[in-house]
User: Fold EGF-like domain-containing protein from Patiria miniata.
Amino acid sequence: MQLMALASLILVTVVGFQYVGGDTFHQTMVTPVPYGAGLPGVSLSCIRSIPDIYFGYSFGRPFTLNVPGSASGLTGFPNGTISDNTVQNATTWYLPPTVDATGLFHCRGRNPVTRLSSEVYSIIHSHLRKFEPADGQVTKTINKGENATLAVISANNGSSPVWHRNNEGILLDLDPTRYEIQLTADEVADGDLFVVTDRDAPLDDNHFGMIRLIVRGCVAGKWGPPDCKGVCDLCYNGGVCDDETGDCICPPGFSEPNCLTGKLIAWSACLSGGLSVGVCDVCYNGGVCDDETGDCICPP
Ligand SMILES: *[C@@H]1O[C@H](CO)[C@@H](O)[C@H](O)[C@H]1NC(C)=O
Ligand SMILES: *[C@@H]1O[C@H](CO)[C@@H](O)[C@H](O)[C@H]1NC(C)=O
Ligand SMILES: *[C@@H]1O[C@H](CO)[C@@H](O)[C@H](O)[C@H]1NC(C)=O
Ligand SMILES: *[C@@H]1O[C@H](CO)[C@@H](O)[C@H](O)[C@H]1NC(C)=O
Assistant:
C-alpha cells in the first residue's frame, strides 16, 4: 500500500523538481547481509555517486563499542579482503566470519578537489542476535525537539531486553521485557547508539541488538542550523532532508536529488557473498521492482 502511495506521489511530482541544497561527498553504504556477523559472506560496500565517483574511501568504526559484559575487541576493523567494482562505483570489504564483524561501521569519502567529506554508517548484527529493530530500520531519524520512540523485537529467543545507550558510556537500564522505550528530546543526542542485551543470556557473545539515532539540527521540513531558514525539498522513498545541506539523504538504492530515481538492490548473488547490485527502472502506477530480475512487476 505504501509503495502504491509513493508511486502516485512520484507521478505527480516527478516533473519540475529542482536540485536544491549545499555540498557534501555523495555516497551511500550498502550492507547486503545486515544480520550476518559470524557467518561467511558478510560485506560492506561504499558506493560513490556523481560527482564523487572517482574519489577514495576509507572504512572504519566511528567509536569504541564497549557494551558492559559483552566481548570486547569490537574496536578494530576486522581483517578481510577488499575489492573494487568500477561498474558500480563501489568498494567492498568482505569481512571474516567472526563476531568482530558485529557493530557500527562507516565509510568516509573525501573529494580532494572540493575538500568536502562525509561519513555514512551501517550496522551489522550477529546472525544470532537476541533482538532487532521492530520496524527493521537500524537507523532512526528524528527532528530537533522530537521525542524518540525506539522498539525492538525478539530474535533467537531473546526475552529480557535491557537497553544501553553506548554514546558517552551512559547506560539505560530499564525494566526487563520492555521492548519499547521512549526518550524525550532532552535525553537523546545525534549519533546515539542504543544497544539491547538480553538480561537472561550470556553477554560475552555480542548477540545484542542495535539502533542508531540521528537527531537533525532543525525541526521537520527545515535545514541550515542554527537558524534553520532553509526549506527542505521533499524526499521520497524514506529519504531524509540533510539538516546541513538541504539535500535528501537517500536510503541505499535511491538516488539524489529526491530519492526518486532508481533502486539499487541486492540481487540474490549477494547471498553467496559477492557484491552484485542492479539499478531498477522506476516503476509507475504501483509497479514494484523485482529484486531478482530488476523488472517492474506491474499491477493488474
Ligand atoms: C589482522 O591481521 C593482523 C596480521 O595478521 C593481526 O595482527 C591482527 O590482529 C588482525 N586483526 C584482527 C582484528 O583480527
Ligand atoms: C558509475 O560511474 C559512471 C561514470 O563513470 C556513471 O555513468 C554510472 O552511472 C555510475 N554507476 C552507478 C551504479 O552509480
Ligand atoms: C515529549 O515527551 C514529553 C514527556 O512525555 C511530553 O511532555 C512532550 O509533550 C513530548 N514532546 C513532543 C514533541 O511530543
Ligand atoms: C529457542 O528455544 C527453543 C526451545 O527452547 C530451542 O529449541 C531453540 O534451539 C532456541 N533457538 C535458539 C536460536 O537459541
